[in-house]
Amino acid sequence: MTTHDYRAGATPPTGTPRPDVPWPRTDPGTPEGRTGPHTGTGATVPHAAAGAGPETVAVPGPDPATASGPDTATAAGPGGAGRPPSAPGRPGRDRYLDLLRSLALVRVVFYHLFGWGWLTVVFPSMGVMFALAGSLMARSLSRPPLGVIRGRLRRLLPPFWAFGAVALTMMFLGGWNPAKDPDLGGTWGLVEMFDYVVPVGAPPFPWHLGSPSGLLEDTWAVQGAGVLWYLRAYLWFVVASPFLLWAFRRAPWATVLAPLALTAVIGTGLVTIPGETGNTVTDFAVYGGCWVLGFAHHEGMLAKVPRYLAISCSALMMGFGLWWASGHLGPDGWDLNDIPLADALWSFGFVVILLQYSPSWRELPGRLARWDKMVTLSNNRAVTIYLWHNMLIMATVPILDQLYNLPFMESDRATAALDATYTLWMFVLVWPLIGLTVLTFGWVEDLAAGRSPRLWPNGAKRRRAKP
Description:
This protein is mainly α and 467 residues long. The N and C termini lie far apart (62 Å).
């Protein structure tokens, strides 16, 4: 699995020098995108299958039984004859897992803003997010599978539709016609538009739209919609989960390790599957091990493995992944999103270690407690933050470009200072934009989950007015 990782420079007001600013990266999304080299301002992006690529992370928010907040009760795990007992846990949210989800989201924003490929080694967000989602899915499958799948789709699709309505409106106003897009194969492009209704495939988008010297660089659609690959991957994991959990309960080790074996075949070039089908299968293989590790965590299997053995095997696996990556470095160096086998092995081992040391916090301890409200908010608005963050990173550019028009910016020294710190200012500005988007669109997640709309669900208790 490779990624579209683009860097492009936005254009300042006419006559003003402008630094090369790293554009958001579409990382297997995150999470970090797919297929294609970096592009500078005005650079040409090679043809590739529309919508492929990670990093983009966000998972659909917790199910109604697990709505974020320290005071929310946790649903009981699956029981019944023939099923392994669930791992022991405390009532209420597991704030350790909530913290991991929040860290994964923040890491995705950092990656797409700064374009540091080594962040995929420091914290493999996509593997962590798929593991957490797998654990929640295993718990939910104590109920009838069809109803669980339907409920997951009900909570996923409305926020996706809201984003798609805005993104498609911008694309159509920009002159995109999917029926005439040569990258989409003519009329087939209209068929692929169904992926904006139900993302059975990564939704299509134009590779170039507008002008490199326009308000937004001409690859803005790639950056904004490229992260949608994650929804396609999540949807297929959800649909496959009843079978995967059935297989896991009968042959746990074979089910956990099978995705790694599949990655070794299709992620190393031994077998090549072209097009969007290949992207789908590759993502399923690379992150399937992490998804099933979520099952293992929920079912208590990981807790039965001696810690020294789990950590030792994980370290060997991660070491092999890094060794493999060292011989297959892509254009972005140690960006594991470009190296499927290394990504799968490193993410798998990393997740095992995180879940082995899982402390199952009811509340965030010590100094972490100061971040409790932000952790709660990001968990309640994970889908919104994930869907919109790349668009918002791009939105910082035309806003910051207005600084060049200020009177005191006419000197070369002032212009050079802004040039040198431009990306830092993008980082500062994107967070209030994310907050504004949470206020504007986040409530759709509540409606999708069957809850009353909330503007800022950070877990703070409302104060009742005194009589």
